[in-house]
Amino acid sequence: xxxxxxLQKAGKTANKHYNYRxxxxxxTASRQADNLEILGYYDPSKKPASISINxxxxxxxxxxxxxxxxxxRSLIKKVKS
Length: 81
Description:
Blueprint: E1 3-12, E2 18-26, E3 37-43, E4 50-53, H1 55-63, E5 67-68, H2 70-80
Parallel strand pairs: 1-5
Antiparallel strand pairs: 1-2, 2-3, 3-4
C-alpha cells in the first residue's frame, strides 16, 4: 500500500472558503475517503493563512515511505520560514 500525505477537504466557512486537513491516505483512495491519520490543518481563508502540522507524526509517515504532495511540501516550507 502506497501512502501519500495530501490535503483533504474538511468543511467550508460562511463565505464559501474551504478548510483542509493534512492527512496520510492510501494513494489510490479518493480525496474524501477515510484517511489513515490526520497530521494537521490548513485554513487559507484566514489572513495570513493558518497552518498547523504535527511534525512528529509527519516525520513518522515520511520515514515509513509516505510521499508528500507538492502542495503539502510547499505548505511545510511556509511553516519553516
